[in-house]
Amino acid sequence: MDDLIFFDYNEKSSVLLIFFFNAVVFSCLLFVKGIKGEEKSSKWLAAFLFLGSLYICPFMLGYAGWYSIKSYREFMFFVPFQQLFLIGPVFFFYIKTLLNSDFKLAGKDVLHFLPAAVYLIYSLIVFVGDKLFFDEYYFYADGRDKDLDFWYQMSGLISMLFYLFRSLRHYQNYRKISLQELSFADEIAFKWIEIFAITFGLILILRVLFFVVNPEWGEFGSKYWYYLCFSILLLYISIRGYSNTVEAAIIRFKTHHLVELKPFSNEVEKDSKNQPNDSLNQKEWKDKIIHLFETNNIYTNPNLTLSEVANLLNTNRNIVSRAINQEFDMNFNDFVNKKRAEAVIVMLENGKHTDNTLLSIALDCGFNSKTTFNRAFKKHTAMTPKQYISKYGL
After folding, report:
1. Nearest to 269 by CA among 310, 313, 326
2. Which residue, 70, 156, 224, 259, shows the most beta carbons closer than 10 Å to its own?
């Protein structure tokens, strides 16, 4: 009976157990949240945290003495706790699903999970061979856990670095397109993705450092400190990731009327032959855009999109975007925010700030938040609103 509940609660195993328990709890909470709210991204993050909790297991249980007891040691040997080929793809698809709640796995996406499937088959072969076919260990003759083999650890690290790079490229593409398409791009920037990517990247950097400092990964040695760092960062991801589900819900609400942002070249635009103004040159388009913004003050719409501007000009998004990029040397988001900043300046010069707060003026001019207002104003004037007021004695 004692063997069934054996766990050596020493300093190392107990600390890792606490982090393991927290990761499992947050994984369950996110999974339930994903089911109830039909949030696919929450399910992917739940899977990531669960894989992270499994990643801790060999060392948590190892420090608890499981490798020193035959029945426990066999359990550790034959259960592939560290699914290194799964962590990267799960991270990648979490990012994709977070940016597009309508994303669904396609047939070709299964290929991303092929290496993990191969490793599971390999683990099954090892189990069947050593437990059912051979009288003595063949695969485990060296007495080392296969999860900790150098080739697997190195391959897993490369896999995770690859998917981190792919995820960052996908996010950068999303940001580039949103800045070209939306006047409220900062409001749907998903800053959490940058934080998550930096944290995940830090985990991998630490992993590389520990490879250099202690390349004999099959031995426990000083690797406890790496697993402690990993556990702390995983807890941070758990807490921030869970709280981010609220931010993600707000962003989805703001963009519920938008289709997934895609490069213009991949989108079917209106037939330019049917557009009477499409033959205009860039200078003429510039004049029309300025006239539209100054006459109708459409920048005061906090949810203004490039498509709406194109519709008002009776043309397509490509033409308007190209005109703004080339004639004004900025993207759509910066162009609209510049117009809003200029409108704020006019109100400041008219003394509106003496009866209204700066935030109230900013909102009236189309800004969505104080942060976006301050950033755009400083980008346009090289000063904060208060510095501008002080400098010009307004």
Report:
1. 310
2. 156
Tokens 């963009």 belong to residue? 255
Strand partners, 206: none
268 half-sphere exposure, CB direction, 13 A CA radius: 0
Q: How many CB atoms are located within 10 Å of the residue 319 CB?
A: 20
Cβ 182 vs Cβ 305: under 8 Å? yes
pLDDT tens, residue by residue, 323-332 = 999 999 999 9
- Hey, what are 289's tokens? 């855009």
305: helix, coil or strand?
strand
Residue 217 CB coordination number (10 Å): 20
**Cβ–Cβ < 8 Å for 308, 188:** no
- State the residue for tokens 């800045």: 179
Question: Which of 293, 339, 343, 289 minimizes the C-alpha distance to 315?
Answer: 289
What is the C-alpha radius of gyration for the chain, rounded to an integer number of angstroms?
A: 28
Give the span between the Cα atoms of 312 and 310, in whole angstroms.
5
Q: In whole angstroms, what is the distance from residue 236 CA to residue 106 CA?
A: 31
Return the pLDDT at 256. 52
pLDDT in tens, 363-383: 999 998 899 999 999 999 999
* pLDDT exceeds cutoff 50 at 1: no
- pLDDT at residue number 269: 43
Under the banding of pLDDT at 50, 70 and 90, the label for residue 209 is confident
**Domains, in order of start, for the chain:** 3-254 (1.20.1070), 278-391 (1.10.10.60)
Beta bridge partners of 331: none
**364 close to 329: Cβ distance less than 8 angstroms:** no
